[in-house]
Amino acid sequence: MQSQTLKIAIQKSGRLSDSSKNLLKECGIKINNGKNQLVALARNFPLEILYLRDDDIPQYVADGTADLGIIGKNVFDEKNQFVVIAKALGFSKCRLSLAVPKSDNYEGLNFFEGKKIATSYPVILSNFLQKNNIQSEIHEISGSVEIAPNIGLADAVCDIVSSGSTLLSNGLKEVEVIMKSEAVLIKNPNLNGEKAKIFSQLMFRIDAVQRAQQCKYILLNAPNKSIKEIAAILPGAKSPTILPLAMEGWSSLHSVVQEEQFWEVIDELKQKGAEGILVIPIEKMIL
Ligand code: PRT
Ligand code: ZN
């Protein structure tokens, strides 16, 4: 029996919390969730879940209160704690950008020289300005950054952008992308012994979930004369499965295809005589 549990800190409520909980669920981890609970234990995996504000997670992971955490890469860079990124998780994608009033004439970074910029990301912003040799005044505010220029608090903002509609509705335009961000799994660099073992079990499951999300199962029928060529296009995890059809001269081929290459491959398959192509999501994929 395992005596240790691994502790993972996730956002209590906000843009990361549903996807973080969902990732654990897809890893087959069942959580006993009470309402407004701050800590929960997994029922079938040695994992304890701490629900925190995202800004506090890097510090908790650095000091060992939690072993792992899920945060945006933007928070990882801003907090600059002694933690490592174990995995990029692919959700909550966004960017940290500089934006200025729509009516301003923007011709390059020199625009920001001597200007006042409102942001919740003073560390990332000041590193960026320093790297580009621009002297600006950074005005740190914790929320509703986008209203700062309208109320005369700043000349520009440095904020998270996703669809861009918040900037648009506040009369701002995005002029520079400072960084791209997505959710990342962070880890205390000193996990050892049993905790390291549980961590690698968890990583194994996350890998299987991610691989499955990136791939589709594909089934098709093809004339026997082109089955070799089709098999070469769809090598699958090891090699495709080929089964004879009841109809003479035809076979069914089953394989796995990368989501990214999907449309490219489909065109090629059709050219080679493939018919009745079915594409099915994969739940887990273990190599
Ligand atoms: O309460 P707590 O401190 O835990 O949460 P929070 O309010 O600090 O964070 P939250 O839940 O807003 O965001 C958590 C993480 O989600 C961020 O650190 C980012 O990594 C990521 N993320 C992804 C976003 C967005 N998309 C996003 N659109 N974080 C914030 N926004 C905000 C942005 O600040 C701006 O106000 O949404 C607005 C812009 O959105 P668009 O779609 O109008 O461009
Ligand atoms: Zn926060």
Write a concise keyword list for the protein shown above.
single chain; about 290 residues; D-Maltodextrin-Binding Protein, domain 2; 8 helices; binds phosphoribosyl ATP; binds zinc ion
Short description:
This protein is α/β, with parallel strands linked by helices and 287 residues long. It is built from 8 helices and 15 strands.
Can you walk through the features of this model?
There is one protein chain. The protein has 287 residues and is of the alpha/beta class. It has 3 domains: 6-92 and 183-212, D-Maltodextrin-Binding Protein, domain 2 (3-Layer(aba) Sandwich), CATH 3.40.190.10; 94-181, Periplasmic binding protein-like II (D-Maltodextrin-Binding Protein, domain 2, 3-Layer(aba) Sandwich); 215-281, 2-Layer Sandwich (Alpha-Beta Plaits), CATH 3.30.70. Helices cover 27% and strands 32% of the residues. The strands form 3 sheets. Strands 2-3-1-4-11-5 form a 6-stranded mixed beta sheet. The site of zinc ion (ZN) has 3 residues, from loops. Zinc ion (ZN) is lined by residues 53-55.
